[in-house]
Amino acid sequence: MTPAAQLLTLLVSGHLLADFAFQTRRMVEGKRRLGGLALHALVVAVVQAAVAWPFLVPAAAPLLLGLAILHAAIDRTKAALPRRMRLRTFLADQAAHGIVLVLVWIAWRRLAGWPGPLHADAVSFVQPWTLVAAIAAAYAFSWTGGAVIVSGVLERHQLDEGNDRISEEERSRGRTIGILERVILLTLVIVGEWAALGFVIAAKSIARFKDFDDRDFSERYLIGTLVSVLVAIASGLAVRALLQLG
Fold first, then answer.
1. Distance between CA 175 and CA 35 in Å, rounded?
2. pLDDT digits (tens, 9 = 90+) for 38-79
């Protein structure tokens, strides 16, 4: 993997970790206030600096500051949009962050001395560090981002929110099962155990077999499961591609 590819991977990984691993529910709910937004921007700057440390030089500080400010501005815009558009706003939000990351990456590569300077003790460590960061980011996204995507798809099809027969406890259990499902599937994809994917999905289906007579439940289950599986497989394939490049 070239230094440019390593830097881009680290920037994307830093974003995913900051947004999905180090962003608390309190931060999410506080984005309508300047204090909550500033706190999240600070977390973004610190996490990005920590993840991209092999390429971190004083000249990159303004880029990280600009990245954090633009991240906060995008999040503030998202917070002002109607919640009924949750899936669309989530996808648009992540696309906007992606554009900013690419612009920062391009600017970073134009710093004096590129493809360095790397810290002298980081040259041999940067490749495994990049892969570890990417794997951690994939798990963070599958854990939290996957839950947002699944919930948004179900809400879009009016198969979750508004269904009075589903208690909050049942929704909570369903979210937990979905998280565990994505984590297990992601792990299996990374290690290449494709045959075991069907076993995990089958085991989940057997536990709910009696409920499939309810059409609403079966449709909700099928859509939610397929979206959850898609997120896990896509994340796993991305990690495998990086491992092959490494």
1. 29
2. 999 999 999 999 999 999 888 999 999 999 999 999 998 888
Structure tokens belonging to residue 164? 């009075």
CA dihedral over 142, 147, 152, 155, signed as positive or negative? positive
Q: At residue 159, what are phi and psi to the nearest 5 degrees?
A: -115, 5
Residues 32 and 79: beta-carbon distance below 8 Å: yes
pTM of the model: 0.87
pLDDT of residue 173: 78
pLDDT of residue 159 exceeding 60: no
Residue type, 245: L
DSSP state of 234: H
Single-letter code of the amino acid located at 17 = L
Is the distance from CB of 138 to CB of 238 less than 8 angstroms? Answer: yes
Q: CA 49, CA 47: separation in Å to the nearest integer? A: 5
Task: Residue 229: name the closest of 168, 170, 166, 149 by CA.
Answer: 149
Give the separation between CA 1 and CA 208, rounded to whole angstroms. 44
Calculate the CA 96 to chain-centre distance: 14
- Which amino acid is residue 243, in one-letter code? L
In angstroms, rounded to a whole number, what is the distance separating the alpha carbons of residues 91 and 57? 32
DSSP string across 103-144: HHHHHHHTSTTTT-PPPGGGTTTHHHHHHHHHHHHHHHIIII
Residue 62 to residue 83: CA distance in whole angstroms: 33
